[in-house]
Specification:
By secondary structure, this protein is of the alpha+beta class. 28% of the residues lie in helices and 30% in strands. It has 2 domains: 154 residues, Aminopeptidase; 158 residues, Gcn5-related N-acetyltransferase (GNAT) (Aminopeptidase). The strands form 3 sheets. The protein has a 7-stranded mixed sheet, sandwiched between helices. A 7-stranded mixed sheet has the order 10-11-12-13-14-16-15, sandwiched between helices. The model has no long low-confidence stretch (mean pLDDT 94). The structure holds coenzyme A (COA). The site of coenzyme A has 20 residues, from strand 4, helix 3 and helix 4.
Length: 325
């Protein structure tokens, strides 16, 4: 069973279906081809093999900008009560929500008791009309004189679309992006320890595209963390020898901190080190960054030694963690 958007070329099959699916009622004039020409992306068809077994013609109201309208829907008699009608409606609801249409309206003929039951089961309420027949409210002369209808309305509850996170290996074409993330992310560290281009040119807050290009040539693998395709942070791994990998330039942009994203990157780098059969993962941090030391300890890093380097205006603490294989 395949469900897809409706196309103008589906029109003959839909018309054919309408001559039989509604019993004795000939409703073929209700779906002119222009609905398919103009509302294809809010209409759906369902096929079993090549056979049309269901369709829904819907559109977004021009006058009521928060509403979607289901003009017609039908399911082949042999396929009823198997969830096809409700699937088509759900697809239309989803489409409405994507476009902030939170109200769906529809109507049916008062004689169509199956449709009334179906709409009620889908959570529609019946709008009060000018008459009531057998307990059902009726809108008199809805489309034209004598064309009475039952009107349905449903309010959709906006659903929070789940965030999609991805950690992907960066390529040379990501150089500028990596440079930008690293520069911005290390800015606050530079401010805190008064590191400038003059007193500490090698600090990541001064990162350039050239550094990253050289890293790639040296064999550093960079990974980018994104949420819904928006970059949040990055980190690199370099295999120093058979046993040891370095975790390098790990960072999360300031506005995305405190949400566990740094941890996601660290875990990913551990996995990469595992894949490289390394025994240890090693990092170097500014010795006075005590809170960072504590943060890395959560991932199994242990302080090994603190060293001074002539080219750096701060001491560096080396931390190492076992990579469990
Ligand atoms: C109305 C119609 C589209 C429903 O399609 P469907 O695929 O059979 O509907 P579903 O299987 O998704 O049914 C969902 C629920 O609606 C209710 N329902 C649907 N048809 C029903 C019936 N004949 N009797 C009682 N309840 C019914 C049930 O609660 C059902 O859930 P359940 O099967 O788990 O009990 C279908 O009967 C049809 O094509 N009818 C002719 C065309 C028509 O009247 N269209 C109406 C809009 S213009």
């Amino acid at each position: 069973m395949i469900i897809r958007h409706a196309l103008p070329s589906d029109h003959p099959d839909i018309i054919m279906a309408m001559t039989t699916w509604w019993g004795d009622r000939d409703l073929t004039t209700s779906v002119p081809r222009l609905f398919l020409n103009h509302f294809g992306n809010t209409s759906f068809v369902v096929h079993d093999q090549d056979r049309l077994i269901g369709f829904l013609i819907g559109f977004f109201s021009q006058s009521m900008i928060n509403q979607g309208y289901i003009h017609f829907a039908g399911v082949h008699p042999d396929y009823r009560r198997s969830g096809i009608g409700s699937t088509l409606y759900e697809r239309f609801f989803q489409k409405c929500l994507e476009e902030n249409r939170t109200i769906v309206q529809s109507c049916t003929s008062p004689v169509n008791t199956t449709s009334i039951t179906f709409h009620r089961s889908m959570g529609f309420t019946l709008l009060e009309g000018q008459a009531v027949e057998d307990g059902i409210p009726i809108w008199l002369d809805y489309n034209r004189e004598g064309d009475h209808k039952v009107l349905f309305k449903k309010e959709l509850l906006p659903v929070r679309i789940q965030d999609t996170f991805e950690i992907r290996q960066a390529t040379v074409s990501d150089t500028r992006l990596l440079t930008g993330i690293i520069k911005k992310s290390y800015q606050d560290v530079a401010m805190r320890f008064k590191l400038t281009r003059e007193n500490c040119p090698k600090h990541p807050s001064n990162c350039t595209d050239e550094w990253i290009e050289k890293d790639f040539i040296r064999g550093v693998s960079y990974y980018l963390l994104t949420r819904n395709d928006t970059p949040l942070g990055c980190g690199g791994i370099e295999q120093a020898d058979k046993d040891i990998c370095y975790l390098e330039r790990l960072c999360v942009l300031p506005q995305y901190r405190g949400k566990g994203y740094g941890g996601m990157l660290v875990e990913h780098i551990f996995n990469r080190a595992r894949a490289l059969n390394a025994r240890m993962l090693s990092i170097g941090i500014i010795a006075r960054q005590e809170e960072l030391k504590t943060w890395y300890e959560k991932f199994g890093f242990v302080e090994e030694q603190t060293k001074s380097f002539t080219h750096l205006p701060f001491d560096v603490t080396i931390m190492k963690a076992l990579v469990n294989t």
